[in-house]
Please model this.
Amino acid sequence: MPLPDRLRQIVDVFAASPKQFRLEALLDYANRLPDLPPEIASHRDLMEQVHECQTPFFLATRLEDGKVQLFFDAPPESPTVRGYAGILAAGLNGETPEAILDVEGDFYLGMGLEEVITPQRLRGMGAIVAHLKRQVGALKAA
Model:
């Protein structure tokens, strides 16, 4: 399945990069993860926890003018998971529900991340995408 252009560009850069760069880039995306807007940060019950993640990870989605807005929260002491959230935010925020629902659940394997993070973290990444797609599917159906 095709990836949205911004996400495709991120995947391609990771795939073409040396192993050490992939880890550095993942940490850079962790630093770029946007803060939660005040209306979500003050009402954490609006977020869903991804229990399959080793790290306390939360996400929320909403639909605005036919585009999906993504909100992620992961602790700063979990930079690989925050980095993955940063990649999802950079690559998918503002896309249509259809574009997000078409993303393969394991698209991150094309990035070579299995060389820099543990299998347990990879499973958590797959769970994040599954929860994200479930939420987006519900938005689309509503």
Observations:
- The helical segments are 5-16, 19-32, 38-41, 79-92, 97-101, 119-141.
- The mean pLDDT is 94.
